[in-house]
Design a protein that fits this description.
With 718 residues, the protein is α+β, with helices and mostly antiparallel strands. The protein has 21 helices and 23 strands. Helix content is 36%, strand content 19%. A hairpin with a 2-residue loop joins strand 12 and strand 13.
């Protein structure tokens, strides 16, 4: 008789609670009614469930006297002799609160429970592989490591099992009994202390509470586990309330099996039928398709003879292209993968692979599409970056990883040690995410820069499809503004069809030119016919023609490129003369200012409702007048955009410039000197302003009056 058993111990009878405190000994292990041997496979759970449940209830009542929620070692130290074969333990108060919070609040998508269970199984398989590598005495078979999923429609159960490292009884109490604690973090810590650094530490599972997401879809959860290298097995059961039951068993397969007794289907609550094989495949395809281990599930197939056969198939692809060497991946595999993640029929324009190592490791496989999606400028558009952690799908359309102006980029980012909060759907450590985002953006922009020299046709396609979006980064991304300016292309007066880059513009600048000249407008044809272009065209200065709506905004934010200032030809004073030309024309300009002083003053007063100043122009050669703004004025197009967005801004008065050499202006100056009181002169001034306003594509406040005045003037010529 063992020394730890009291005299009441008799063969074939179970020890009482007061006579045995070492249930791990074979002499004290009672026979378990109704439990089949697990050496025959995975096909048996507890056929005599009622007897076991009643037995556990009785044991729970007995053990309540000993406050059995104490850890086993603490009970041993206190000298309390208990039968640890079957116990009913209590969750801690904080754990109960976390459980309720998680089930009812944290997880927005109930399908994620299966992702969590598969992640835990993958973690267990990784641990077993690593432990077998480290401990040569560990006798385990690692030849067929896999994850199995079984459904029972009649019993409405779903089982996820693996043949991984498993857990001991103490592990179950410590890890499963306490929410938000995970063995993976402790396991990695122990591995780091080891000198054996050659083994791969590729572990999922620092999330901890994912196991309890099962209670979103299940009324009861049971767990059966046996740790590799040990003979004792452990059974755990809970209904998600304040207690759980744990029991030691004689035999069980190595690994862990979690069985969910599913709640009734309720589609209004997004609670689906998780015994449906197609639903299981859909969830696995979405969340766990790239798990490194095979996920197997039994399926029924009907043959040509009408006979149904049961087969086991692998339902995940396990093809994480980003984790494979570049030389191992064929071109068609990249294209197929792109079409899979982007739902695009076309091939990608460019493939971007990235691998970061060091303190923070991650891999990225990104794609630049060859054609802009239809929803590129829609408000409810989605971004195309999928976030994975250790090949486990975390979220789609990850906005935190790619800025708005690169929303067309498709692909996946797989982080190796990214810390997430308990739901795994909200990112926890912003510093790491921002670091990843910064590097990804720089990689995408550098890839476009390389295209400009290595594959010009690809760059032209890229800019034609996404140029308008990329220029949004000039407004919002100050860190990469200079890089974005380097890849910007726009139309210019240098060539009627080809675009030009800012670098090419700088290379063609005239000697002594200090500014990059540009003009914004609705279209190239309107801009080229604008009076503002006359002097620049006459003197041979190249002007950038910016016609995208976003151009109106970024030119207000960007001041210079490579030391050269951006200057609108429709704002401020323009002086294109050389020093010699200035000296020659200086006396003529002074005389013109004196001659036109009275006219300019009178017109400023006459048109004060529309303009804030009338002055002579140095930018006109053939037109009589034009309208310009001050250096920091908002352009008419931008003013119109603000009003369209609902912003109430006051009308902005601008400046009317006159061409002193034009016959209409010189004639008006002469007429004003001869008959200042003639009311027809005011109408002529009004017509002059209206023509300048129309010449730049503006809209008249009173078109009918303008037409009436113009018709009257034309009638006088007949």
């Amino acid at each position: 008789m063992p020394v730890h058993c009291g005299p009441s111990r008799k063969p074939g009878r179970e020890p009482t609670t007061s006579t045995c405190w070492r249930p791990s000994r074979d002499c004290c292990r009672p026979p378990t009614p109704g439990v089949r041997s697990y050496s025959r496979g995975y096909d048996a759970w507890f056929p005599d469930r009622d007897r076991l449940t009643e037995r556990r209830r009785r044991r729970g009542v007995e053990l309540a006297r000993h406050r059995t929620y104490y850890p086993w070692k603490l009970l041993f130290q206190k000298g309390i002799r208990v039968d640890t074969q079957v116990e009913t333990l209590e969750f801690e108060a904080e754990a109960r609160q976390l459980l309720q919070l998680m089930v009812h609040s944290i997880y927005s998508n109930k399908d994620t429970f299966l992702r969590e269970l598969i992640s835990n199984s993958s973690d267990a398989l990784d641990k077993l592989r690593l432990e077998a590598y480290r401990d040569k005495d560990l006798q385990v078979d690692t030849a067929d490591l896999h994850i199995g999923i079984e459904v029972d429609k009649e019993q409405r159960t779903l089982t996820v099992r693996d043949n991984g490292i498993g857990m001991s009884r103490d592990d179950v109490v410590a890890l499963i009994g306490t929410i938000a604690k995970s063995g993976t973090v402790d396991f990695l810590h122990k591995m780091k202390e080891s000198k054996d650094a050659a083994a791969p530490q590729d572990l999922i599972g620092q999330f901890g509470v994912g196991f309890y997401s099962s209670f979103m879809v299940a009324d009861k959860v049971t767990l059966l586990t046996r740790r590799a290298g040990e003979s004792d097995a452990t059974s755990w059961e809970s209904s998600g309330g304040g207690t759980y039951t744990i029991e030691s068993l004689d035999d069980a397969p190595q690994g862990t099996a979690v069985t969910l007794y599913l709640k009734p289907e309720d589609k209004d609550d997004q609670l689906f039928d998780y015994t449906d094989g197609w639903k299981i495949k859909e969830i696995v395809k979405r969340y766990s398709d790239f798990i490194a281990w095979p996920i197997r599930m039994g399926v029924e197939r009907t043959g040509k003879d009408g006979q149904a056969t049961h087969e086991v198939e692998t339902i995940n692809s396990m093809k994480a292209l980003w984790a494979r060497s570049k030389n191992e991946v064929e071109e068609h595999e990249y294209k197929d993968f792109y079409k899979h993640v982007s739902h695009d029929w076309n091939d990608p324009l460019e493939i971007i692979r990235m691998k970061a190592e060091g303190t923070f490791e991650y891999q990225a496989l990104l794609f630049i599409p060859s054609q802009a999606p239809l929803d590129l400028f829609m408000r409810d558009r989605k971004r195309g970056i999928q976030l994975y952690v250790k090949r486990v799908f975390i979220m789609d359309d990850c906005e935190a990883l790619m800025p708005e102006y690169l929303r067309f980029i498709k692909g996946v980012v797989d982080a190796q040690d990214l810390s997430l909060n308990v739901s795994r759907e909200i990112l926890q450590q912003d510093r790491q995410i921002q670091m990843m985002r910064r590097r990804l953006v720089k990689k995408v922009l550098s890839t476009v820069q390389d295209m400009m020299t290595s594959n010009v046709e690809h760059y032209k396609t890229f800019w034609a499809q996404f140029g308008r979006v990329v220029k949004e980064g000039l407004i919002n991304d100050a860190e990469n503004r200079e890089t974005i300016l380097g890849i910007v292309s726009s139309a210019s007066t240098y060539h009627a069809e080809q675009l030009t880059t800012l670098r090419q513009y700088l290379d063609r600048m005239k000697d002594g030119q200090q500014d990059i000249y540009y003009v914004t407008g609705e279209s190239r044809s309107i801009i080229e016919s604008s009076p503002h272009m006359e002097a620049f065209r006459a003197k041979g200065f190249e002007v950038l023609l910016l016609t995208d709506p976003v151009d109106e905004m970024w030119v207000e934010s960007v001041r210079e490129f490579d030391g050269k200032r951006f200057q609108s030809i429709a704002k401020g004073q323009v002086d294109l003369d050389t020093e010699e030309e200035k000296q020659t024309a200086e006396s003529d300009r002074d005389q013109q200012k004196k001659d036109f002083a009275d006219l300019l003053s009178w017109m400023t007063t006459t048109l004060q409702e529309d303009v804030k100043e009338v002055r002579l122009s140095s930018r006109l050669t053939t037109s009589p007048a034009c309208i310009v703004g001050d250096t920091h004025d908002v352009t008419p197009t931008l003013e119109k955009m603000y009003r369209a967005m609902g912003q109430d801004i006051p009308p902005i008065k601008r400046i009317l410039e006159l061409n002193p050499t034009h016959p209409l202006v010189s004639g008006l100056q002469k007429a004003y000197g001869e008959r200042k009181d003639d009311p027809g002169l005011a109408e002529t001034a009004e017509l002059l302003y209206g023509m300048a306003h129309l010449a730049e594509g503006g809209e008249l406040s009173d078109p009918s009056r303008f037409i009436r005045l113009l018709a009257d003037r034309l009638a006088r010529t007949l």
